[in-house]
Amino acid sequence: MFSSADVSEQPDVSSTPSTKSERTRALVRDIALRSFRERGYDATTIRLVATEAGMSVGATHYHFPSKHHLVQELYLDVQAAHRAAAEPLLEASDDLIERLGIVYRTGLDGLAPYHPFAPEFLSAAVSPRSPINPLSTESAPALAIVRGLFADAITGARTRLPVELEERLPDALTLAHLLLALFWVYDRSPGQVRSRRLVDRGLGLLKGALPLVRTPLLRKPVRDLLDLVAEVRA
Amino acid sequence: MFSSADVSEQPDVSSTPSTKSERTRALVRDIALRSFRERGYDATTIRLVATEAGMSVGATHYHFPSKHHLVQELYLDVQAAHRAAAEPLLEASDDLIERLGIVYRTGLDGLAPYHPFAPEFLSAAVSPRSPINPLSTESAPALAIVRGLFADAITGARTRLPVELEERLPDALTLAHLLLALFWVYDRSPGQVRSRRLVDRGLGLLKGALPLVRTPLLRKPVRDLLDLVAEVRA
């Protein structure tokens, strides 16, 4: 399993900066991301980032008009690292449950360094009015990476699901990922082992339930459950 | 169905104040609860409440050392009104699904007046470190009222559930209630009609699934699901 240290060693996915302006932007961004990881959300300020970059606050504002824009960079960075950690592992398995487990577990790995500051991130992001809410329009590109990972995990598995289920499962799994992240913020067990056990249990439940989804008995409850998820995601 | 106006007419459940100190406490409390309902969480301050009560800040501190203590009064007030709204309706039905619907729907009715301010309450309460977190020790008495309502809804229904399910269902339903409240904060539909539809769909799903819980096929998945909920609630 990839440790969080390994994840942070993944190459930066943003294009290599070429112009001076792009290099400045990358510098500010990298300093901000390290500050979020090391100081948390509350203690990271544009002023502090500017000072560490040896720039004026005005100059950083040109690239990032507010702290919220830096958080969106953080989301993209975390999810790009998530994808980079998950993809090589996904190549090694065609078992659906294993593949979903890879996506959830590498997701938790990538979040690990942020756990000490997770409550303050949550307070800042949880309001539906917050520009750093994970469900906001601004955060859509980062969330799309997670959804894409779940879609890939399903498409690349040898198990064939009923079309209706295959199409709607990625949204349900992404919602479960967000609820898992919420649980993880509350998880005070060493190494957040309870969050990992929750993944194991959830996947065990899915494994037991999947062979049943084609039975006439369960077709309607399963469709109802997917309707419920669609209602939540709408 | 009880409107939120009806709910607010329910008699106060705290004992009738007799001493001067008790009357002062009740006055401060009532002014604070009205302020939370009318101004929201952020704009309600101890100073403002003290002014409206014609008291010094120090005098209110004697009864309520912080704003958090007033929020706990609010939680108790909302849940006591929830119980008062649900109980007479529960007497009129012995159908399990209907009874659960009564608890969820009267819960949403009671929350309705707070919807404009719900995002700011959520931001303040969501951190696991927040003293007004609904899962905190301080908030346990209010949450116990909700759990008790679900337990009563089950015990008073004519449907007999397997013991294992009956014992563990109230926790699962209380967790669902908290997640419903989270969804409701995000619900921008008129009158939060989508939250009500979510209740309808969820109960429809439960209604379809309940006859199946005794089948050998589903006994294990159901137990796994309850284990998962127990893991989350622990």
Automatic annotation (TrEMBL), chains A, B:
DNA-binding keyword on record: yes
Pfam families, sorted: TetR_C_23 (PF17931), TetR_N (PF00440)
Keyword Transmembrane: no
Region (Disordered): 1-21
MF (Gene Ontology): DNA-binding transcription factor activity; transcription cis-regulatory region binding
Xref: Gene3D superfamilies: Tetracycline Repressor, domain 2 (1.10.357.10)
Span of domain HTH tetR-type: 22-82
Record keywords: DNA-binding
PANTHER family in alphabetical order: HTH-TYPE TRANSCRIPTIONAL DUAL REGULATOR CECR, HTH-TYPE TRANSCRIPTIONAL REGULATOR RUTR
The protein, known as: TetR/AcrR family transcriptional regulator
Lineage: Bacteria, Bacillati, Actinomycetota, Actinomycetes, Micrococcales
